[in-house]
Amino acid sequence: MLTCIIRYQIDPTRKAAFEEYARAWNVAIPRAGAGLIGYFAPHEGSASLAYGIYTIDSLAAYEAYRARLSEDPLGRETYLFAQRERFIQREDRTFLKRVTGGPGA
Hints:
The protein is of the alpha+beta class. Helices cover 42% and strands 31% of the residues. The protein has three helices and four strands, in the order E-H-E-E-H-H-E. The protein has a four-stranded antiparallel beta sheet with strand order 2-3-1-4. A hairpin with an 8-residue loop joins strand 2 and strand 3. Helix 1 packs across helix 2 and helix 1 packs antiparallel against helix 3.
C-alpha cells in the first residue's frame, strides 16, 4: 500500500476556490478507486500550503486509477475548474510507503 501526498501551493486569496476543488475530489477520487484520506486547507501558519492525501495499492494501480479519473465527468470538470480559476500555483506528488506505526505496520 502506498500513500500519495499531494502538496499544493495555492493563492492565499483563493482558499475558498481550493476548498470547492477539494470537495469535488472528495467524491471523484474514491469513485475512481483510491482510498481518500482527505484534503487539507491552510488554517494557521502558512496561508499558501494545502494537501491532498490518499492511498493506492501500487504504482500500477495508480496508473489505472488515473485513467479512470480522467474518464470521470466530475474528475474532468474539477481539473478544468482548477485550470480556469488558477488558484493552484504549484502541485507536487510524493508516494510514501508506511514503515512504522498503526495496526499491521
